[in-house]
C-alpha cells in the first residue's frame, strides 16, 4: 500500500482510498432509489487481491470461532452478519472494503488499531 500510494492524505476519505483499489461498489442511483452494483475492479490488482484474501481469512476464522463458542470482536461479528444476510463472496468484498478504510485511517491518524469487543 505504501508503494502504491505515497501520501495517504491525498485522499479525502477512506471511501476514496478503497475506491482507488477498486473495492467500492458501482453506484447506479436516482434521486429516489439507490442501486449498488459489483465492485469496479479498478486500481492495483495485487493489493486488491491481498485485501480480499485477508478478508476471506478473517471471515473463515470468525466462522470457526463462532462455531466453537469463542468470543468474536465487533469487526468479525459485523462480517458474520453480512455473510448471514448475503453470500460469502459479497461479505468478503465488503470486509475487504472495510479493511482498506481501516488501513487508511490508521495510516493517516498514526494510531494503532484497537478492536472493540462485541
Polypeptide structure, described:
- There is one protein chain.
- It is built from four helices and two strands; from the N terminus they run αββααα.
- Helix content is 55%, strand content 6%.
- It has helices at 14-20, 45-68, 74-85, 88-109, and strands spanning 25-27, 36-39.
- The protein has a two-stranded antiparallel sheet with strand order 1-2.
- Helix 1 packs across helix 4.
- The mean pLDDT is 84.
- With 118 residues, it is mostly helical.
Distinctive features:
118 residues, mainly alpha, two-stranded antiparallel ribbon, 2 strands, 55% helix
Quick synopsis:
By secondary structure, this protein is mainly alpha-helical. The chain is 55% helix and 6% strand. 23% of the residues are buried.
Oligomer: single chain
Separation, N- and C-terminal Cα atoms: 29 Å
| Main sheet record | 2 strands, antiparallel
**Proportion of strand residues:** 5-15%
* Cα-based radius of gyration, to the nearest Å: 15 Å
Q: What helical percentage do the residues reach?
A: 55-70%
Structural class: mainly alpha
Based on CA inertia axes, which overall geometry fits?
globular
Mean pLDDT: 84
The number of helical elements comes to: 4
Secondary structure: number of strands:
2
